[in-house]
Amino acid sequence: MARYTATLHADRPVEDVFAYLADFSTTEEWDPGVVRATRNGNGTIGVGTTFDLVASFLGRENALTYEVVEYEAPHAITLRGENATVVSLDRITTEPDGDGTKITYDADLSLKGPLKLGDPLLKLAFGRVGDRALEGLRATLPAR
């Protein structure tokens, strides 16, 4: 299993930041590793909402379906992504921080079955991917 945790500050209100991040289709805007991200269905985002993402990882494009498994607006959302080879659990929390918002992003990525032998390589690569996504988020949020 690989884990990535990061905290950053955004000069935006908590409600705005949470709404943006809870719509996981926006990952295409700030995560350079996401090739495509779409929300399935309409209506309010909450537990059960799903998103289809295509991510480029280790030179391959991988499709994952993410489902919201926890939703406590405007402070916490957890999404579980899965495909045939990997499970991802992403938890995003937001809280007031002065005039802006403190964001904590905590992601766990686990390979399935015999692929678990590749976990040490996964840990190294996942850290780099997470750092690039964090930089993209830092650059994108002030413009929102």
Question: How does this model look, in words?
Answer:
With 144 residues, the chain is α+β, with helices and mostly antiparallel strands. The chain has one domain (2-143): Alpha-D-Glucose-1,6-Bisphosphate, Chain A, domain 4 (2-Layer Sandwich). The chain contains three helices and seven strands. It has helices at 14-22, 27-30, 119-140; strands at 2-10, 34-40, 50-57, 60-72, 76-82, 86-97, 100-111. A seven-stranded antiparallel sheet has the order 1-7-6-5-4-3-2. A hairpin with a 3-residue loop joins β5 and β6 (86-97). The mean pLDDT is 87.
CATH class: Alpha Beta
Number of domains: 1
Poorly predicted runs: none
Task: Please identify which CATH superfamily we are dealing with.
Answer: START domain
**How large is the share of residues in beta strands?**
over 45%
- The total count of helices amounts to 3
Q: Which class best fits the helix and strand makeup? A: alpha+beta
Shape: globular
Write the CATH architecture name: 2-Layer Sandwich
The total beta strand count reads 7
Largest β-sheet summary? 7 strands, antiparallel
Mean pLDDT: 87
Query: How far from one another are the termini?
Result: 33 Å
Element string (H = helix, E = strand): EHHEEEEEEH
Helical proportion, percent range = 10-25%
Report Rg: 15 Å
Main sheet: which strands, in order across? 1-7-6-5-4-3-2
| CATH topology label | Alpha-D-Glucose-1,6-Bisphosphate, Chain A, domain 4
